[in-house]
Amino acid sequence: MQGEPQDAGPRPPAAAVSEDELQNMSDVHQNLSDADAFKLLWEMKMQKRQGKPNLPDTVTELGTEDGCKVYLVGTAHFSESSRKDVVKTIQEVQPDVVVVELCQYRVSMLKMDEKTLLKEAREINLDKLQQAIKQNGVMSGLMQMLLLKVSAHITEQLGMAPGGEFREAFKEAGKVPFCKFHLGDRPIPITFKRAIAALSFWQKVKLAWGLCFLSDPISKDDVEKCKQKDLLEQMMSEMIGEFPDLHRTIVAERDVYLAYMLKQAAKPLELPLALGSEPNQQMPSVVVGVVGMGHVPGIEKNWNNLLNIHELMSVPPPSLATKVFKFALKTTIMGLLGYGCYRMGKGTVQLMLSRPLIQNYLHKLTNQKF
């Protein structure tokens, strides 16, 4: 299962304590054996876990045949209230696993501070473009940069970095004893490559044009109105409404993938022998899932289905039109370089071509895997 377990520590008590009480607690912990400390932390967790939790309206409860529970928090990626919903849910249910709508390619946002994230989200430069193309190929890389432009537009309008609810989930999971943290989204390069493969050449051009000229103002009220559908996905759906295949790859397929990962996380727990339990004794697990509100209906729809994500992880071969476009793009770039060299003169060209940086770039260009 794709995910990254995160070491967790005990949550601090809700009530304030004096210095003397803290010292007494420290003395007690020093006198405990590892088994006793384990048992104490487990009991603290079970005492704080609410049998009938008071949850926000944005939470959907799902169950498995084994009695495991999944509390699915539907969020808007730029919403302050969504952050509070995530915190409240995790504190109420004291989960065994927290699953978020992120993959390993976006996990860095979990540990960045708000100021750094704002700067990163607003800046779309040549280095980011080159990295996206290197990871995903030209077409998928360009599409990724255009979607980042949409996100940067929202960030600029709201002054709020994306993914706040995921960072809150990461922090709160670390306060719950024995809580694991999993990444539940399909790797973004696969999503973009499958999305690009689903479009014709002219559909790609039309979509790119719409993304390039996105500039409508967005208010915080608009974001909160989008609690019933994630803002970024709503903006995308408005632009890709005429491309059902694109909607399938970006939204519907990820609904299936997220449902699969949540079901994988919702497995019965084998109770540790340190608790005095019988060998192989199990108990139902509790999972909190944090996803964009737009994915909640799809996850519910697929929850009771037999899911197989093998096909969703494959990348179709490029179409003939895509191959022709890539060849034409490479030829155009080489032609422009050649014309520029002709205009600058032989001496200048030789001087430029002798530079290691230019030689390295030309080598990469001629060997680029589109």
Quick rundown:
This is TraB domain containing. The chain has 370 residues and is an alpha/beta fold.
Strand content: 5-15%
N-to-C SSE series? HHEEHEHHHHEHHHHHEEEHHHH
Q: What percent of the residues sit in helical stretches (DSSP H or I)?
A: 55-70%
Structurally, the number of domains stands at 2
What structural class is derived from the secondary structure elements?
alpha/beta
Tell me the Rg in angstroms.
Answer: 25 Å
Bulk shape: elongated
pLDDT under 50 segments (min length 5)?
Answer: 1-18
Q: If you average the pLDDT, what whole number results?
A: 75
Distance between the termini: 30 Å
Given the structure, what is the number of helices? 16
Task: Count the beta strands.
Answer: 7
Main-sheet strand order equals 1-2-7-3-4
Q: Biggest sheet, in brief?
A: 5 strands, mixed
InterPro entries: TraB/PrgY/GumN_fam, TraB_PrgY-like
Pfam families: TraB_PrgY_gumN
Protein name: TraB domain containing
Word description of this protein:
This protein is α/β, with parallel strands linked by helices and 370 residues long. The chain folds into 2 domains: 48-316, no CATH class; 320-351. The chain is 55% helix and 8% strand. The chain is built from 16 helices and 7 strands. The strands form 2 sheets. Strands 1-2-7-3-4 form a 5-stranded mixed sheet, sandwiched between helices. The chain has a two-stranded antiparallel sheet with strand order 5-6. Strand 1 (59-63) and strand 2 (69-75) form a beta hairpin. It is elongated, with a radius of gyration of 25 Å. It comes from Callorhinchus milii (Ghost shark). Pfam families: TraB_PrgY_gumN (PF01963). This is TraB domain containing.
